[in-house]
Amino acid sequence: DQQVKQNSPSLSVQEGRISILNCDYTNSMFDYFLWYKKYPAEGPTFLISISSIKDKNEDGRFTVFLNKSAKHLSLHIVPSQPGDSAVYFCAASDLNRDDKIIFGKGTRLHILP
Amino acid sequence: GAGVSQSPRYKVAKRGQDVALRCDPISGHVSLFWYQQALGQGPEFLTYFQNEAQLDKSGLPSDRFFAERPEGSVSTLKIQRTQQEDSAVYLCASSPPDSPNTEAFFGQGTRLTVV
How far B42 CA sits from the closest chain A CA (Å)? Predict the structure, then answer.
């Protein structure tokens, strides 16, 4: 039972354009959402997060949007750069319960020159 | 060190062998998590400690898996009688005592291959 779903295994985007990575979740108790980025042979690194009381959080080139009614969030990267090529994991947590983070399967982003 | 440290980085075990994977969290971090990441999958939760207390072990796939954190810092994940399906990268993460504190910091992982 996948509580966090990333339905696109991979995505290719031209350098300089916007990358949009999507994520859906099923557990309505999730109240904190995170995006992690992972390069080969490294552990995931935290990128950006959003609390369920917000619908948008921006940090430089990265913006996360949350649509609670649709149980959907997305990560926008603009402009996309070659170093953004990595696997991106969407993750969620129920902070009222514990700190456990549930991950999606990831989307591999390729930035094309 | 400044980050979460895991050892060994790579481990090859013969089927049936026992293995022990070590995690040194960031100093002062209260929460510690173990995840299993199979090829092409996202990290799957295994177990969670707050200090030395194991608060959730619902993700451990079988009773061959055992984790401990006796002094609330270093943690060991032990897998007994390894099977081929145990082959994966085992990730450890820790997070500080602030709340919300779910911005967990991950180690580089231990890649376990069971042959």
Answer: 4
